[in-house]
User: Which sequence fits this backbone?
């Protein structure tokens, strides 16, 4: 039996010697490589926090002491030492989540994987401990150097630093080389002394003595105040020479480090010092993403931040060729557009490669702006760029638009700024779970005045609609698309005058064609974006039941095209199929437009429920919520027959059904 198998609770770590801790760290790395390579997941980040996580659980007492992970993708080691060692179905339906999950363990606290929020959580938890008189409880927040670019972190630090008795330990996991490493013999000697110095600096008596001396000198005469200013400046200069602390020190936060995050004993010593200070402390740890796994370290782009199924020895993908991705199509097309238009500027938030802007950046490095994890700033800055005569394209994940809604509404839309926002991974995304599904955007965007919203169904439409979006100069435009592989092209039978594509028509013998009038068709199916395949399958299924239909793709779902309203008046019922939440979505918007036009055609919104959808593949999630062609077709048949609300408009001469009453056929 290995050491890892003996660990079922963090307290079990206290039984191990220093030598055994080193063996355990290696076991954990071997475990992660062997298991994550079979399921896919966030491999690089977790290989980088093995010793750091072990040290946290050796020094602090989870769950009495709260351990909060920012984003949470680096929590695999935490899962292992808190008794969750079955990684066979990691990120798969019914298996372990790829992020902290309260349903899995009492040791998990924050499930949201949106970055830069951990310190606000820590502030709130620590305040609760204070108010309840639980002075012996600590909060440890683990945050990456990248997440420190988010504005929320500094709002939180400002509040945490204001209370010297707040028992918050902030562990900065610095794996991005954002601080230059110190090298040389003298530096090594100073580094060997630093733990001792930190213990002195963070001792309560040291703090009390410093406060007493400061107060006496500041309250004294002019000479005393001059002496205080001189000593304070000298002290700050020595501290900055010894261990540059910058903003942390200016904010009043105690700073420990930098510490080698892969030296478990050094991490324990630093964390013990921080705990004994019993106030807000920042522990700065250097780590290597992908530590101990050569293929990850050799991956220049992101050290295997997230991988699919790979060969554990070579790190090479063993998944078959996936074909073109939505992200790749966007990346190629926006680069072509930038070659044609010098006013195109791309913006992203620490996601240059994931959103497909690497090629653009390679050709036009001066026209790509990475703002870090700061979506709010990105969107407002885009408004400024538009005012300055450029056309910014903000490329982010759909789920992260949530964070910049106010800026989109008040800075972009209110000012009629020509800004294009590209939303990658819209709709159900699959294994990353609730906080990564891009399912809220269609509802949020419906209430933004003047906004134009496109939902391409295939690669050709993405290219087409992206070009149309960047041609809009006096309003915000949004293009949203799914995650993963682009399906085959879905060709239209015809394009209507306002850009709506008719994808299919199925006519059957129906009453009402006398006197040269067109027969009323049973069902108008409005397909939004990537739901076209499902919509066409539904049309085929109901066609086998003798039900006529028209399938259309609006292409631009906002504003609602007039032809959609006109087509609705010629059908008995409208079915809108979208991969956003039903409440306030595209279906709801079309219903309102019908009512405004005096059209009483029944409409059924088919989309996602207003709930947090647990992880699983896209297909599994859609099946679990009933968003399948078989289920939708069954509902449509019942609605046309009048046995399920909303009832389709009755045929001429047929009485309208009443709820609970079978129709007269």
Assistant:
């Amino acid at each position: 039996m290995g050491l890892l198998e003996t660990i079922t609770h963090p307290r079990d770590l206290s039984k191990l010697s220093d030598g055994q801790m080193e063996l355990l760290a290696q076991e954990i790395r071997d475990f992660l490589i062997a298991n994550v390579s079979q399921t896919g997941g966030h491999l690089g980040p977790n290989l980088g926090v093995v010793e750091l996580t072990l040290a946290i659980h050796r020094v602090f007492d989870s769950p009495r002491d709260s351990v909060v992970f920012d984003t949470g993708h680096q929590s695999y080691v935490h899962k292992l030492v808190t008794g969750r060692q079955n990684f066979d179905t990691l990120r798969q339906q019914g298996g372990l989540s790829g992020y902290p999950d309260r349903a899995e363990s009492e040791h998990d606290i924050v499930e949201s994987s949106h970055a830069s929020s951990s310190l606000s959580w820590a502030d709130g938890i620590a305040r609760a401990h204070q108010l309840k008189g639980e002075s012996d409880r600590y909060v440890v927040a683990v945050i990456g150097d990248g997440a420190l670019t988010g504005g929320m972190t500094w709002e939180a630090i400002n509040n945490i630093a204001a209370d010297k008795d707040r028992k918050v330990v902030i562990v900065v996991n610095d794996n991005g080389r954002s601080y230059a490493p110190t090298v040389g013999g003298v530096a090594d000697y100073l580094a060997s002394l630093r733990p001792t110095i930190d213990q002195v600096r963070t001792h309560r008596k040291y703090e009390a003595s410093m406060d007493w001396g400061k107060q006496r000198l500041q309250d004294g005469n002019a000479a005393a105040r001059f002496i205080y200013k001189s000593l304070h400046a000298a002290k700050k200069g020595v501290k900055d020479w010894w261990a540059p602390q910058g903003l942390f020190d200016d904010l009043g936060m105690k700073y420990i480090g930098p510490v080698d995050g892969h030296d478990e004993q050094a991490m324990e010593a630093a964390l013990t010092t921080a705990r004994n200070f019993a106030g807000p402390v920042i522990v700065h740890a250097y780590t290597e993403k992908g530590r101990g796994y050569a293929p990850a370290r050799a991956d220049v782009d992101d050290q295997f931040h997230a991988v699919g199924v790979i060969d554990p020895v070579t790190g090479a993908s063993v998944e078959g060729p996936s074909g073109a991705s939505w992200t790749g199509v966007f990346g190629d097309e926006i680069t072509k557009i930038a070659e044609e238009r010098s006013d195109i500027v791309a913006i992203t938030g620490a996601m240059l490669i994931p959103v497909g802007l690497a090629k653009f950046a390679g050709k036009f490095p001066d026209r790509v702006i990475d703002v870090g994890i700061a979506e709010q700033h990105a969107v407002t800055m885009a408004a400024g760029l538009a005012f300055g005569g450029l056309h910014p394209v903000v490329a982010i994940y759909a789920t992260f638009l949530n964070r910049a809604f106010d800026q989109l509404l008040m800075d972009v839309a209110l000012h009629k700024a020509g800004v294009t926002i590209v939303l990658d991974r819209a709709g159900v995304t699959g294994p990353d779970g609730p906080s990564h599904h891009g399912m809220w955007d269609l509802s949020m965007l419906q209430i933004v005045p003047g906004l134009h919203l496109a939902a391409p169904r295939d690669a050709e439409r993405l290219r087409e609609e992206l070009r149309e979006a960047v041609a809009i100069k006096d309003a915000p435009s949004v293009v949203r698309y799914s995650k993963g592989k682009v399906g085959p092209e879905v060709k239209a039978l015809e394009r209507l005058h306002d850009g709506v594509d008719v994808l299919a028509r199925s006519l059957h013998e129906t009453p009402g064609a006398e006197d040269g009038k067109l027969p009323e068709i049973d069902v108008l199916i409005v397909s939004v974006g990537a739901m076209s395949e499902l919509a066409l399958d539904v049309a085929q299924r109901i066609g086998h039941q003798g039900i006529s239909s028209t399938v259309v793709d609006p292409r631009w779902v906002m504003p609602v095209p007039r032809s959609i309203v006109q087509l609705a008046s010629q059908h008995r019922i409208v079915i809108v199929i979208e991969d956003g939440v039903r409440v306030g979505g595209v279906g709801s918007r079309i219903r309102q437009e019908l009512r405004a036009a005096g059209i009483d055609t029944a409409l059924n919104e088919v989309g996602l429920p207003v709930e947090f959808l647990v992880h699983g593949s896209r297909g599994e999630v859609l099946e679990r919520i009933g968003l399948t062609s078989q289920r939708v077709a069954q509902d449509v048949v019942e609605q046309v027959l009048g046995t399920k609300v909303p009832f389709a408009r009755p045929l001429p001469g047929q009485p309208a059904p009443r709820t609970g009453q079978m129709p007269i056929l």
